[in-house]
Design brief:
Largest sheet: 8 strands, parallel
Order of helices and strands: EEEHHEHHEHEHHEHEHEHEHEEEEE
Distance between the termini: 28 Å
Radius of gyration: 23 Å
Number of helices: 11
Length: 409
């Protein structure tokens, strides 16, 4: 056992290797190599839309392709943007095919894709303001049914509704979603949107997502569960532009939201490698500056914080996914140097730290020999594996459901 705190991330399995005739592959050297994690490590990955659709100059696409390869080298999970105002700026003309191409590009490379979000008061469709509240609710639910249906099999995980704690009292500008949330109330709008998403794809993983980690979010989750809303996972945003939460706050948040017994996803994580945003800024969007550079000193700080935070989350039994919001500094939210890559695609120390953790320390490779019956037993991190015998390979999964498997090589 590499680490007692990671026991829940591991399992034991016995596999028996046979040839095409069913004879045991006895007394042979074999390698059991993990190729993918069950745990979801990922980032927001909006650049893939351009690559999958060939949008941009050959030079720009080459830069993005290099960036995506660095993503694939360590991550297995990506979030794609479904902001209604950008996805369907003109009513009846959604960018479905463009996003399907991006999702297909990822799934073909064994990346799990999440759509974000189906309902949100920000970046929502401006044309909703022309409709009555009754019509807004109807087209919102139709929108959910359309997207969840159109992307089934490509996107089977969704942030169904985003930032509902603030939704009915949001006052930065008028929008259709705040209007209907005021009228329906928080729990009812969540219940309606979740029910429609569940109906469209019963097998999908559906998240409630919020940046508000106060007791207000706990009360909202409790109210939803009491109202019969089937929440598959609790989404927690952790944009730390004003400084790393630290172990104490992180563990305190985990303890409070673990009360529900639901899986927890850290859906939007930010740790910068530049100066910190001033603490008096209440809405992070209000901090707009011309340049926010990354520096060697702060890159080392980012690497330390990434290592500690990811370790704490990976050790927690209810956490199933961590998404860094910006993979690269190029195009990062608010212009913050929040990526694992610099703008020129060169990896920061935080990238190297994560690669070491995900691909080495939290990864399993076993060299062993089969017995007279062609069997080997091993313990490893949950996920996908390949078994290599000479020049032959076969694939299998290590999970908690199956402790024995016969494999033909």
């Amino acid at each position: 056992m590499k680490n007692e705190k990671l026991k829940h991330r591991m399992a034991s399995k016995k596999i028996r290797l046979v040839d095409a005739s069913g004879n045991p592959v006895a007394n042979r050297q074999v390698t059991l190599k993990q190729t993918n994690h069950q745990f979801l490590f990922g980032s927001g990955l909006f650049d893939v839309i351009q690559v999958a659709n060939g949008l941009g100059s050959p030079e720009r696409l080459a830069v993005l392709e290099d960036r995506l390869q660095k993503f694939l080298d360590i991550f297995n999970f990506a979030t794609l943007p479904f902001y209604w105002g950008r996805f369907e700026p003109e009513r009846g003309k959604p960018q479905t095919k463009m996003l399907q191409a991006a999702a297909r590009w990822l799934t073909e490379r064994n990346v799990v894709v999440k759509g974000h979000p189906l309902c949100w008061h920000t970046v929502t469709a401006p044309w909703l303001l022309e409709l009555s509240n009754e019509e807004i609710l109807r087209v919102q639910l139709e929108r959910i049914e359309r997207e969840v249906t159109d992307f089934k099999g490509l996107v089977d995980m969704w942030d169904v509704i985003n930032e509902v704690v603030i939704m009915p009292i949001f006052d930065k500008y008028d929008n259709g979603i705040t209007r209907i949330c005021k009228e329906l109330g928080r729990v009812r709008i969540i219940k309606e949107t979740f029910a429609k998403a569940r109906e469209a794809n019963p097998g999908a993983i559906l998240l409630l997502n919020d940046f508000n980690t106060s007791i207000n979010y706990e009360i909202l989750i409790d109210g939803c569960l009491n109202a019969g809303v089937e929440i598959d996972a609790i989404g927690i945003q952790s944009h730390q532009h004003q400084g790393y939460w630290g172990r104490e706050k992180l563990e305190e948040v985990l303890e409070r939201f673990s009360v529900f017994g639901l899986p927890i996803h850290f859906t939007e994580n930010t740790l910068t490698s530049g100066h910190l945003m001033p603490p008096e800024i209440e809405d992070l969007n209000d901090y707009q500056i011309p340049e926010w550079p990354t520096t060697p000193e702060f890159e080392e700080r980012q690497a330390r914080e990434v290592e500690e935070m990811y370790t704490i989350l990976f050790e927690h039994p209810l956490v199933e996914a961590i998404t860094s919001w910006s993979f690269s500094d190029d195009g990062a939210w608010l212009g913050a140097p929040a990526g694992f890559l610099r703008k020129d695609n060169s990896p920061k120390p935080a990238y190297d730290v994560l690669k070491r953790l995900i691909k080495q320390e939290w990864n399993t490779t076993v060299d062993t020999t089969t017995d007279d019956n062609g069997s080997v037993s091993f313990e490893g991190f949950l996920g996908e594996y390949e078994v290599i015998v000479g020049d032959k390979k076969a694939h299998f999964k290590l999970d908690r459901e199956s402790q024995f498997e016969q494999i033909t090589v």
